[in-house]
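>> received
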Amino acid sequence: MRILSAGYLAALLALTGPAAAHTGYLLPNLFNTPQRDHVTVEASFTEEMFTPDIVMKAEDYHVVTPAGAKVKPTVTYLRDLAVFEVELPEAGTYRISTGLRAGATRKMALVAGKWEPVREREGAPAGAKVADAQSITRSDVYVSKGPASDKALTPAGVGLEIVPMAHPNRLDAGGALPVRLLLDGKPVAGVTISLQGPKLPDEEDAKAVTVTTDKEGKASIALPHDGTFLLLARHRVEAADGPVAVKSHSATLTFAVGS
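>> returned
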């Protein structure tokens, strides 16, 4: 049997997409800056929050400026992460995004009305409907130069996205961040959003910090302490057309409390 080297396996994962447990994130070196002319952003998939593990490649990395213009940065891909600079020529808030990323395909089974990944060792439950699913991911973060502004918070209207309903660059510990979950611009009800950070349990832990969206796609996340956090939402739907039967959407939003 052929044994894969660690380097070969890492390269293979980068090409085919991350394992199910990996979460994509964008992390700037500053979330708020009084007058700097740029920030530097890293992008990766991780199993331990904000520790880069698998480089995140995307065709639509972009920045929405305070005026609403869309700008494409120059991205450098390293083995574990991507890095790029975002110019901040004007005051206000910038939305930094991977855009929609079409990832790897995998088998999923319809269990109790929900599509769940089929694990190789366990296989699909007897009698369950099994279909090919493609992952579609998006990661976002907001950076403000000087006074924060709201235009860049306007929803993109495509794919799954976590839309902040309070400004993510004006958050304090003990407060809350209200958000709305949208799929192609429409609210999504009954979806779990988890709060993740270096000191918090991940989404698969029984002690994970989670909220569930209401019928308008809204939820509010309590902010336990200062630090950098990530919101993660996953939503799987049957595809109306195309080469796969299921689309497995995930969206993340990185933000800082007390920065």
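>> The CA atoms of residues 60 and 73 lie 10 Å apart.
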